[in-house]
Putative thymidine phosphorylase
Amino acid sequence: MSAAPLPAPPLRLRRLGIDTYQEPVLYMHLECPVCRSEGFEAQSRVEMTAGGRTIVATLNVVQGGFLGVAEAGVSEAAWRMLQAPEGSAVALRHPPPLESLGHVRAKIHGRKLTAPAVRAVIEDVAAGRYSELQLAAFVTACAGDRLDQEETIALTRAMVDVGERIAWGGGRVLDKHCVGGLPGNRTTMIVVPVVAACGLRMPKTSSRAITSPAGTADAMETVAPVELDVPAIQRVVERTGGCIAWGGAVRLSPADDVLIRVERPLDLDSQGQLVASVLSKKVAAGSTHVLIDVPVGPTAKVRSAQAAQVLARQLEVTAQALGLHLSVVQTDGTAPVGYGIGPALEAHDVLAVLRNEAAAPPDLADRALLLAGHLLELGGAAPAGGGRALAHQVLATGAAWRKFQDICEAQGGMRQPPVAPFRHAVAAQRSGSVLAIDNRRLARIAKLAGAPRAACAGLALHVRIGDFVERGEPLFTVHADSPGELAYALDYAAVQSGTVHVSEDA
Amino acid sequence: MSAAPLPAPPLRLRRLGIDTYQEPVLYMHLECPVCRSEGFEAQSRVEMTAGGRTIVATLNVVQGGFLGVAEAGVSEAAWRMLQAPEGSAVALRHPPPLESLGHVRAKIHGRKLTAPAVRAVIEDVAAGRYSELQLAAFVTACAGDRLDQEETIALTRAMVDVGERIAWGGGRVLDKHCVGGLPGNRTTMIVVPVVAACGLRMPKTSSRAITSPAGTADAMETVAPVELDVPAIQRVVERTGGCIAWGGAVRLSPADDVLIRVERPLDLDSQGQLVASVLSKKVAAGSTHVLIDVPVGPTAKVRSAQAAQVLARQLEVTAQALGLHLSVVQTDGTAPVGYGIGPALEAHDVLAVLRNEAAAPPDLADRALLLAGHLLELGGAAPAGGGRALAHQVLATGAAWRKFQDICEAQGGMRQPPVAPFRHAVAAQRSGSVLAIDNRRLARIAKLAGAPRAACAGLALHVRIGDFVERGEPLFTVHADSPGELAYALDYAAVQSGTVHVSEDA
């Protein structure tokens, strides 16, 4: 007579202190009875439940002595997601088959995604059920122009539906968004205080960089906290009229936040995902009137007026389907805006503009006033054609600067942006006129120098298109947080000597 | 006066015993001076050199006490790739920017890959410079029919060029390949001994499963070693005329071996990659005459005669460009071949056929004889139309079985395939005739049960299309190496009751 086997005692949660970036990883001992009885192996996807929360993690199998056979070790990402105390009982099982992956495969094979298919994929993505590989496949399948208008609307709606929403109780709620690709274009940090100083409501949530050296949230974070939750955003806006917060902290579009973490290392753009990413956050943030700034230039994200029109059309149709008023402005995208590229360097430019300093970059001020003017008209604070003058007045009188300080204080306290400990100037190899500046290569250099992860990293431009430079004069200075990164960025800059193109004839 | 800082002592290699499957991972302490000075962070790609070998690994940053600040911990995959003794000095640096990724991005955005672009990508892939995410993006960008004829030829050539090649010194060298999708189709293990028993040369290298429950290499490995290097293959073929080895062990197409490791979890097929994968290995193996078996059926990998013709055409044109004689046979792909699905279960079927056992699956024997007949004619051992009769004779007299045993012994020794410790029969829910069998769902069940990783896992079919079954009679038995996997496969089988479709009217 044989007794039924006794159930094995539950595994105990152990924080191993291993930072795998955002990927939740579970570490189990090769001899762990659960690992063996379930047939888990390295890279298995495992559903783990501890302290009432359930996540799906990728398994690494450990033979070393640092993990016990009755322990379920977790990476920092898994630890943050579970929020359970060390030693908690952990239940493990095979996750249910990921049925929505069939829709991704169908899309890869050229079939169109239906609205329910998109919804199923996005629910699974937001719930963390997709592995990094599966996320990469989905992002790749939707890259370029592979999502049509209906798919884009469905994706936007699905992204809104799986996240939080902010309610503002009626009235116009303004918002703006710049379709990136233009280094240094930190107008938001000027536009919000200008608009709020005119009595309008502008609760701005911004993203961190996806493929660029800095997002607005990255730059803003160097002067004030940006990780605000929904009640904090509501409190800040109630007090000041505006805020500049990180959208990811409020889970306005949690699926988008997950997708961004594979989009960034792949450095891939997708028009449909771009539209869905932007508009899902606007809808979720409770915005009613949205201005979209599309910089156009040969090395900007959008390279021609025609491409900008295609994008504008997709934005407008999608916004309409979701009940948003949307207006698109094409702006000049031929050269970087301001002098700095990188979170702190861009913040320094913004502060100079807000303080009306003589050394402030005039192009950044101009663009910010143009956009603020449009928004003041959209919001009814200025008559048609009168927005820009009002914006200029608010900036010149220092009202915008006072409002910006109020917003920073309300967000948790204003601080000074950091300055990089390692810097090196790249000089002109000949005398001549600056004919062109390659935004993409500049962005690449800033990223190799450590931006946006290292807030102080990036580069500061010293010249503008049309300037005359002498041989040996600095074109730009690379800023880095470590000597290795400085060297890495300078190595690349050395072989890309046409990044700032100086004419042959002095 | 300040002295120059002393160079930091080199980091020391430490094997941590962490199995991350095939991904090389480097573990560094958060306080490690190299990690800090280079600006490495979690998920950075880091080039590491130890004992003369250089690899690119993904960084995980460790805060726990199990790793010292002067140690460079490595995962099992990185440990295997470096082959350096523990304690070796390790040099780390940022890898050069991965320029070939620009070609992958261009492909994702719909531009065609040139031959030099494909070559650059494949060199970097074979050298291990692509991260898992980047591999997933490349595989996705080439999935379905996204590679045209020229791209496919370029991909095949690039895959051959980056790997080893076997030289046979003149004369016909035969080969065959089955374009998968048909569970249990293990004809190779019968065809090779039949052909070799007739005095022809057939050095067969096979792959492990990509998206199926078993590849030929997985099934063969349950009866003999398959990890032979080039000299071993040459020795086995010299002695016996044939071999059935794993292609991955000889690095005939190392780029393909890397791509397969992301194709498998993504469960994605690509026609161009399929053609390149198959033909690059044939060219590298020194084959001159190749027979391709394309099973066609509604639930096979190739679903229609038309799709088979498109594939055959791409195979023929690519083969011609690479100087191979190639012949394609379409076969019946409407039902699984043999009774077993999974490495060991398929090997049991093969052994039964070779031994002329009464219980041997007749369909497997038939297909093997058809293919062997074609090959005997291609190789000049039989007159046109006379191949099949010769093959039948060689099988019936036991000559093929003796040859198979010789091959197994020459490969390192014959062994018995394992039998699964956990089995459960799935019974018919009503009486009736078997109208259809869904290959894809059967394959899914076998994979959920643990195939091909667990060699004994899979399922054994008890019925054929057209059979009459009584309610409660077993349709198939699921085999697993652990109770968890058995339950997982049975859960899926329970909700997919139409996998074996029994008619309504008993």
The first strand of chain A starts at residue 11 and ends at 15. The mean pLDDT of chain A is 91.
